[in-house]
Here is the input.
Amino acid sequence: QNSKLRFFDKFPFFNFLCNALMPPEINNSSKRHVKFSKAFTLAKTLRKTGAKTALILAKNTRIPHAKAAFTLAETLITLAIIGVVAAMTIPSVLNHYREQVVETRLKKIYSVMNQAISLSELDNGSKEFWPYTCSNDEECMEYYEKYILPYLSAMQKYEFQSYNGYNIAIYFADGSLLISKKAYDYFFFPNAQNFDEEKFAQYDENNAIIREGQGVIYFMFSFQPSKENIYYQKGFMPYVTDLDSINEENLLKGNYACTKENKNPAYCTALIWINGWKIPKNYPFKVKV
Here is the structure.
């Protein structure tokens, strides 16, 4: 036994080969004779056929406990590739999700408001005979209480002053918000949390109104069925004031053009509307929810 141990001390190469050929469970003191037997077998082979044959024998011997594994370098490279792919795809996926939420809720508020108006007509007569607007806070509140609010499943309402006029904010169960100004202009927020009263209507150095976030976090509609213009006898619809016809060319020009340069791009809702409530590929903004 001691001579065999000295053999391994003298020829560490055989110790290495035996360790490689032997499963881990055999590598203990009670089964070392197996290891010694393998060692002397290799020694005899080396003596008879030469070192080259012994090395071939060792190379071709199956190692049952060996397992394939990634190196550290391979793991790091894989993680780097995953990171690059994620950085390229996640923003696109998130943007697509936001667009779907906005499209769905725009279509929904359009339907909900027109259904409410149809129900209101049963009690209050044809909409083209309703008041076109309201002149003061009391009159505006009476208008909403009579023609609009009873026919909506609203969670909460909130009144405030903005841009020299009375406004009412109507909150819905899906987390969206509809703001109406003087009964004819409507501003829809797919996510009510994006509403900031202080930033809702601002003015530039020429005293012109700036609607920050329009076409991005909120979208403009109008309801003027009694006024003899493009809205006459129509229901709740996207804002198209000053237009004679509604098409993409007209929606991309004028005072309310849906462009990045415009400070009040009110036509953006109509641009989505004429595309079947789908945000077009040439839409100038990235929407947010």
